[in-house]
Amino acid sequence: MLKQKLTIKQQQRLSPLQYQVIRMLEYPTVDMEEMITREMEENPALEEGNDDDQTSDSPDNESLENDGNFADDEKNNDDFSDDLDIMEQDFSGSEYDYISQKYSANDIRSEPTEMPFSYEQTFGEYLLTQLALLKEDEKIVRCAKFIIGNINDDGYLMREVENLVDDFLFKMNEEVSDTDMQKALEIVQSLDPAGVGAQNLQNCLLLQLKRFKQTQSVQIAEKIIENYFDFFSKKRYTAIINSLCISEKELQEAKEKILKLNPKPGSAFVRHSEIVQSSIVPDFIVEQDNNNLYVSLNNSNLPPLRVSGVYKKMADLPVKNSDKKNRQAVDFAKQKIDSARAFIEAIKQRNVTLLKTMTAITRGQRIFFLTGDESTLKPMRLKDISDVVDYDISTISRVSNSKYVQTQYGVFPLKFFFSESMKTESGEIVSNKKIQHIIKEIVDNENKTEPVTDNILTDMLKEKGYVIARRTVAKYREQLGIPSTHKRIESY
Questions:
Q1: Are 140 and 153 in contact (CB under 8 A)?
Q2: What b/e sequence results for 22-33 when a residue is b if at least 16 CB atoms lie within 10 Å of its CB, and e otherwise?
Q3: How far apart are the first and last CA of the chain?
Q4: Sorting pLDDT into bands at 50, 70 and 90, what band is 1?
Q5: pLDDT digit string (tens) for 281-326?
Q6: Angstrom distance (rounded) from CA 252 to CA 220
Q7: Which of 8, 24, 5, 6 is closest to 16 using CA atoms?
Q8: Which of 355, 369, 350 is nearest to 31 (CA)?
Q9: Domain residues of the chain, as ranges?
Q10: Which residue in 282, 279, 276, 300 sits closest to 409, CA to CA?
Q11: How many helices (H) and strands (E) does the chain have?
């Protein structure tokens, strides 16, 4: 028999605004630009601009205006648990903005009045442009164009001359000799970048060496690549020295020439779209001035937002109960206005959270931001920042994920500043970043003919007071991208 009964229980639920803020926290700057653009397209009540642009002086004109940078003062910075200056700010007012004033007021960052026309030139078009400047027989030029069409993205031609002749006959319905095709190949190989049109790595390196000034070291390098390429690739340097009757110094000079060559000449020509896709847009900017650190959001490309004045007037129109059509229009305007206000408020809360978190990270790693020395990084966990800013660990994780900060020492992911801790023999707590820095220094200064093993690295670290297991040393070495001992050895 079915029974019904009432129960009372407490259950925590997130509001739609909180859901939106949580979702925004995960987005880096580039994704936020797309999200704002998409929201403006979907919601006509949300538009770009400041309230100053509107004639209405109503206090309901919600907007995000250009204001607000946050500084990390020199005082009380050594204590990681100090209260943040940023927390003393009143972030609830509408004057807060996600656009940093120092950048929005800079003419360099201002938008152009006209959108310039952009054109991407492909690698093949780049080669064809050079070919058009040469005065060669039309038949040879057609062969050269056919060869360029067969060059891959790395700049290599993975076809033999005789195969190219057959392909040319089949596809172009024109018969050419091996001599003509070979001449066309030599023309292509004379184009920039050096090494283009090579049929293998050995050929690619030789093509590049032939363009250098023929000094003694370059000539030795050519002989090594041409006659002892297998020895060089296997690091059998003693056999090369004995075969060419040269000194170790001469071999080292030739080796330096070879190592500076580009094994993939096509990679030197990167399309504009690939640069844009591979570039990193920092989400934060930390600047230093007189030993003070200034933290700001890098949101110069995000437009200021406001609620449309037209829709606000539409929502305030008096409507009779009998006028169904106008009532639906007013309800629609109110719905879109509420959505726009919620979106603007969500961005405000997102930026407050980002700035608080980044300021806490800057406080915790203050010495690194002042010096750029990785060995000064302190052990820091997500929970440490969570305790300081009074946010949940999951919130700190969302903020630090896929976010980057620009400093005067380079661009770093936020996860770079979080690390494990270990205790030295003296009782000092240090970051594993410092251990990795020491390992890298040891390997960089090692004797390349007898590189240090993981066991030796473990003993050397122990002498410095860092007692860690050999497998941990191996893990840190792999994280640094350092090959194993037998792959680093160089025999003479």
A1: no
A2: bebbebbbeebb
A3: 90
A4: low
A5: 888 999 988 888 899 988 877 888 888 888 888 888 776 665 777 8
A6: 10
A7: 24
A8: 350
A9: 16-110+281-412, 123-268, 420-488
A10: 282
A11: 22, 9
pTM above 0.70, yes or no: no
Identify the bridge partners of residue 407 per DSSP, sorted by sequence position.
410
For the chain, give the mean pLDDT. Answer: 76
Q: Does domain 420-488 have CATH number 3.30.420.380?
A: no
Q: What is the pLDDT of residues 429-442, one digit of tens each?
A: 777 777 888 888 88
Q: Does 88 have pLDDT greater than 70?
A: no
Please enumerate in sequence order all residues whose Cβ is within 8 A of that of 79, keeping only pairs 6 or more positions apart, or say none: none
Determine if the peptide bond prior to 193 is cis (ω within 30°): yes
Q: How far apart are CA 432 and CA 24, in angstroms?
A: 31
- How far is CA 42 from each of CA 48, 203, 309, 346, rounded to the nearest angstrom? 13, 56, 17, 17
- Rounded Cα distance, 148 and 166, in Å: 16
CA atoms within 13 A on the CB side of 3: 3
CB environment 431-459: b (16+ within 10 A), e (fewer): bbbbbbbbbbebbeeeeeeebbebebbbe
CB atoms under 10 Å from CB of 186, counted, come to: 12
Rounded to an integer, what distance in angstroms lies between the CA atom of residue 254 and that of residue 226? 13
Over 41-89, what HEC string results? Answer: HHCCCEEECCHHHCCCCCCCCCECCCCCCEEECCCCCCCCCCCCHHHHC
**pLDDT digits 0-9 by tens, 321-350:** 657 778 888 888 889 999 999 899 989 999
Q: Check pLDDT > 50 for residue 479.
A: yes
Select from 64, 89, 84, 57 the least CA-distant residue to 73.
84
Q: Which of 358, 215, 271, 305 is nearest to 32 (CA)?
A: 305
Q: What pLDDT, on a 0 to 100 scale, did the predictor assign at position 11?
A: 67
Mean pLDDT of 469-479: 83
**Cβ proximity of 431 and 368 under 8 Å:** no
